[in-house]
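Sequence only, no structure available. Ideas?
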Amino acid sequence: MNVLSVASEVFPLIKTGGLADVTGALPLALDGNGIRMRTLLPGYPAVMQQLTKPRKIATLTSVFGDEMRILAAQHAGLDLFVLDAPGYFDRSGGPYVDTTGKDYPDNWKRFAALSHAGAEIARGLLPDWTPDIVHAHDWQAAMAPVYMRYTGLGHIPSIVTVHNLAFQGQFGPEIFPELGLPAQAFSIEGLEYYGDVSFLKGGLRTAWEVTTVSPTYAQEIRTPEFGMGLDGLINARASELMGIVNGIDTAVWDPATDPHIAANYGPGALRARSKNRQALLDRFGLADGGGPVFCVVSRLAWQKGIDLIAELADWIVAEGGTLAVLGTGDQGLEGALLAAASRHRGRVGVVIGYNEPLSHLMQAGADAILIPSRFEPCGLTQLYGLRYGCVPIVARTGGLADTVIDANEAALSARVATGFQFAPVTADAFRQALRRAFTAFRDPKVWARLQNQGMKSDVSWKRSAERYAGLYSSLLARV
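Reply:
I predicted one. Tokens follow.
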């Protein structure tokens, strides 16, 4: 079975968040299920620089009249198609924003071009490979099934996976005439969304199947609270909606072999974590106060509940905890965290930015990871935490609820608990979960049991890949 994945980022070539981790790991996980997935992504400078001997396999004209090339390449075990369109993607900023952090004004054109290229590959653009299914990820690729539906390719199965419904690719109606679609596509049955054009809404409307990245999130987005204005459409498509929790690449994230940490270890050998703990404290300029070391590895945003961490930082220190934060995002939240670090030198450390090797060390050295997200479609950092014996303290939402077993009395007695959950997402509820964590940490046997149980969790892609394979097979059976 041939599946074309269309995505705006793929690890290890280009990454801004969890989307890249998923699109980089899923093709490898599917390989053992008789599925060959090839991934179409944009030719950003960072991507082009890492390709080894790319081959031009096709030339096409974009819906906007520009000539583009499709390059074939392999990288880190991935089969890639790269959309070489310098006018769209050869820029000095990030994938979506310029060097000042502002969205590129032509993002609609850039990712419509990517989606259109995906549809043309489905049409048979490539002489030696045609997909049986097209799998588009998030709003940046969601136009692929739209182009397929409105250009005579609706008979080819397509899937849109929503990694975060908050990002919908919404643009003014003036762009519609340039998209190369028939007039009926700008309607409530197509792209029209409160008078604007929504790429994600179009994909949700036209794809054969809609998936999200956890079962709980699939149910949450059917409600007004989490549906971001699209809950009506999602409920209308409930019979074609499926939640499949993400996995992680357990070869990249393996404390027994990880080259980014100070000492390797595995389940039942947690004493070696102490070297990583000290290395983490040294890296952040923190003293060991004997209490738990909490870490945060996150985009610093309201969605992630970072304001609650800033609000409780003084209390965490007063209770004997230490806090290490790695992330970038909202300037106000960055400032609040840096102010906490200034007030509590040696007890709160903050690194603004993203550093992949440091994120590994934080999972290996911290005692617990804080993830108080207001909504979290899946989340990956809690899976890394489980894998590394870094106990997750999470809000009870989305994939966090699906992957962390709360250390309530029954779960502790049954020895199945792997972390701490709390709800609602308020400072008081978060503080109560932290109190429970402080109490558990004071009992080394209880804490070690939580760590070891988490490390036994299956956070790999195996089961999730099997569910995707089953979904693909069911779609082909409908052709």
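Residues 2-247+462-477 form a domain with the Rossmann fold fold (CATH 3.40.50.2000).
Hope that gets you unstuck.
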